[in-house]
Structures are given as C-alpha cells and as structure tokens.
Write a structure and sequence with these properties.
The protein has 441 residues and is an alpha+beta fold. The protein has two domains: 4-220, no CATH class; 300-441, Heat Shock Protein 90, CATH 3.30.565.10. Helices cover 66% and strands 9% of the residues. It has helices at 4-28, 45-60, 65-88, 92-116, 124-144, 147-154, 158-181, 190-264, 268-297, 302-317, 337-355, 406-414; strands at residues 321-325, 362-369, 373-381, 420-427, 430-438. Helix 1 (4-28) packs parallel to helix 5. The longest helix has 75 residues, at 190-264. It is elongated.
C-alpha cells in the first residue's frame, strides 16, 4: 500500500519531470514574453493525476511495473497534449507532436544527469539540482539553435501534422523503452547506455532541423521561380499597355478631326459628350492598366511584388475585381520578407474565397509605407455571420470542416514579431484584416 510519504515522493518525481517538460515545451513552441506563464499552473493537474493513477495501478497490479510505467506515461503524454492544445489554441496533432518531442528531451536530460551522477549515494536534492541544471542548459542550447522556429516550420502544413506526430511518438516510445531498460544494465555499461540515449535525442534534433531547412529552401526556390514567372507576366502587361497606347495614337488624328468639326459647327453638347466618351475610353483601356502598374511598381520588395502579381492574375481569372493601392514606395518591411509574404498570401486567399460568395466579388489591397511602419489592409465583401473569437481557432472555417487553417498559421507567424499589430473588423458587409508592422528599434 502507498503511504503518505510514498505519495509525496512519487508526486515530487512527477513534478520535477513536468517542470523539465514545461521548460522544453516553451522552447519548442518558441514562446516569447511571459503571457504563457499565467497558464502554467493548470499543468500541475497532470503530475497530481499521474500520482493518483500510479497509486491505483499499484494497488491493482503491484508486480507489473512495466505495465504501470506505460500506463502513467501515456496518461501524462495525453494530459500534456490537452494542456498544450488549450494553452496555445492549436490542433491536437500539433500539440501531440510537441508533447512527444518535449518528452524525448526530458528523458535525455534525465539520462545526462544520470551520467554525471552515477554514484548512488548522492543525495536526492543534489540529483534534482543537477537534473534541473542539465534541463536549463540543454533548453538554452535548443533556443540558441532556433529549434522552435524549425519545429513550427516543419509542422506548419496541417497535412503532415498527423504523420509527424506519430513519428515523434515512436521516438518518444523508444526513449521511454530505453529508460525502462536501464534497470537491467550492468554498471560498467551505464555510461555508453546513457550516451546512446543522448545520441538518439541529438539525432532527433538534427532530423527536425534538417527537414525544416530542406522544406524552407524548397519554398524559397518555389517563390523565386514565381518571381521570374510573374516578372514575365508584368512585362507582358507593360507590352499590352504599349500596344494600347500605339493604337490610341494611331486614331488620335482622326479623333481630333472629328472633335474639330464638332467645335466648328458649334455642337458644344456633342463635343462635351465626345470628350467624356474619349476620356472614359482612355481610362478603361489604358488608364486603369497604367494606374495598376504604377501602384504595383511602388511595391519594391521582390517577394511581395511576385505574390501580388500571382494573386492578381488568379483573381482576374476568377472574375474578382481586385484593387491595389500603394501610393508610396514600399522598399522595406520590418519583418522577414518571406514571413510577410506568407501572411499576405493567407489574407489574400481568405479574402478571394470569401469574395466569391458575394454578388459582386471584389478585393481591395492597401499598402501604406510610412517612415517607421508599414500598414497593410485587405478588404472583401462578406454577408455571413462571423465569430471573431473562433476564426483564430485551427480547423474553424465558415466553409466547413478542415478548411480554416490559414488564420491560425498567420497568428503563429506573427508571434515571432512582437512589434506587429494585427486587427480584424467586420461592418456593413465588409470584412477587413489589417496588419501594422513597426520598424525594429
């Protein structure tokens, strides 16, 4: 039977493990700021419930330690996953992958502490102190490697989250199996045994970073190919303007002759009508193209201009009236251009999809560059009902299940940039997304 002292010992052991687990989770989720610390007390339920579960299982299966270990380990993993999902408002598989990865690091830190303290007579408090120091140092190293950024990049695509989560679960299960096997390892083999555990953790870190870097490089190559393709589209648009100008110039003398004849006859009303018609025709055929080209030419960040060219072409094919306004040159952005491009792409995709539901589909894009900030506003018509608290929840969409994956990704990107401000408004049938990027001090 469990005594009160046994309860406290088991709870203290679970609490120490959860403290290291939470530390690694903060690195994996790339937390910046202290706002998440307010949600940390809820995690205390996990070691408490795990202690009670261990006591119940011990009463029922006192001779089956492996079964009890697997049971409370799975329970801890599930409870931590639920806490991560609640704290970060992310999907189950993303949270499960993060919990498995943090569990791997926690077991590896325990193994490294065991290497440093192979003497069984060392006090328990000293062991906890060394364990905590190992966890802090290794977490700082992971933060220095920007592991959280690479982990987020790898799992950003919702289609791979389940597979990656199950893969990390397999690695976590292997690490836990190694932890169980240590009881049967002879003392002279403990150091290479724990070293093998550390090598497994290091390989897992290297694999995540390698896959993320390959994915990042692939995306950048794809964007660069889009830049070349869309530059060609831009050049064709300019050539079309030149052809329109040449055609207008060809008819210019005939138009002047007609206007001169009307003026000579004193037909002022007909003259005014002809001039208005000429002006409207010019704006329709040439003026709008020139104006759009001028605004697009003011966007001087290649990644952003390429994306705008691509999205404008797609919207035109879908019959969406897209209006771009960039009155002043946009030459720099106070965040990584690739991240800003991803944010802009998410907003434009959502706006175009919602605009198609309107009777007259349109999307308006405004880029306003000032001395120390860049403001982006994307507007579109939308006549449905919008819950502002749910649109940021992963998986929520007004179009149905498993389609609302853009805005949560948009929000996760912006977490890396505390000097950005995102806002959402909806009034009179117009949905507006705004993003203000301040220059870093």
């Amino acid at each position: 039977m469990f005594t009160l002292e046994d309860y406290f010992a088991v709870f203290a052991d679970f609490l120490g493990g959860h403290a290291a687990l939470a530390l690694y989770l903060f690195v994996i989720m790339d937390v910046r700021g202290w706002q998440m610390l307010k949600k940390l007390p809820a995690l205390l339920l996990s070691p408490l419930l795990a202690t009670l579960l261990d006591a119940v299982l011990y009463a029922r299966f006192p001779d089956h330690y492996v079964f009890r270990y697997c049971a409370f380990s799975c329970a801890i993993l599930l409870m931590c996953t639920l806490w991560i999902r609640w704290a970060w408002r992310i999907g189950f598989w993303y949270a499960f992958a993060a919990a498995c990865m943090a569990g791997m690091f926690q077991v590896a830190a325990s193994g490294l502490a065991q290497i440093l303290l192979l003497d069984s007579e060392i006090p328990y408090t000293a062991l906890i102190a060394v364990y905590g120091a190992v966890a802090l140092v290794s977490a700082a190293l992971l933060h220095r490697l920007h592991f959280g950024r690479w982990f987020r990049l790898l799992l950003e695509d919702s289609s791979v989250q389940r597979r990656m989560a199950l893969f990390f679960f397999g690695l976590e299960a292997a690490m836990e199996a190694f932890s169980l096997l240590q009881e049967g390892i002879q003392p002279e083999y403990l150091v290479p045994y724990y070293a093998l555990v550390l090598v497994m953790a290091g390989l897992a870190v290297g694999l995540v970073i390698y896959l993320s870097q390959r994915l990042d490089a692939s995306r950048k190559m794809e964007v660069q190919r889009d830049v070349i393709a869309q530059q060609q589209l831009y050049e064709r648009d300019l050539e079309a303007i030149q052809r329109e100008v040449r055609a207008f110039r060809h008819d210019y003398k005939n138009l002047l002759a007609g206007l001169s004849e009307q003026a000579g006859k004193g037909e002022l009303d007909e003259l005014r009508a002809s001039l208005s018609q000429l002006d409207a025709g010019f704006d329709q055929h040439i003026g709008e193209r020139i104006q759009a080209s001028v605004h697009l030419g003011n966007v001087r960040v290649p990644q952003v201009r390429s994306l705008l060219l691509s999205k404008l072409a797609v919207m035109e094919q879908k019959g969406i009236d897209c209006r771009l306004e960039a009155l002043y040159p946009v030459e720099r952005i106070g965040m990584d251009p690739w991240d800003f491009t991803r944010c802009l792409g998410i907003l434009l995709d959502n706006a175009a999809e919602a605009a198609l539901e309107a009777e007259t589909p349109w999307v308006e894009i405004v880029l306003l560059s000032q001395q120390d900030r860049l403001s982006l506003r994307v507007s579109n018509p939308y006549n449905g009902a919008i819950d502002p608290d749910r649109i940021w929840t992963e998986g929520f969409s007004t179009k149905g299940e498993r389609r609302g994956l853009g805005l949560p990704s948009y929000q996760r990107i912006l977490r890396d940039y505390p000097h950005t401000v995102a806002s959402t408004s909806w009034a009179n049938g117009v949905f507006v997304q705004e993003l203000v990027v301040e220059e870093k001090a």
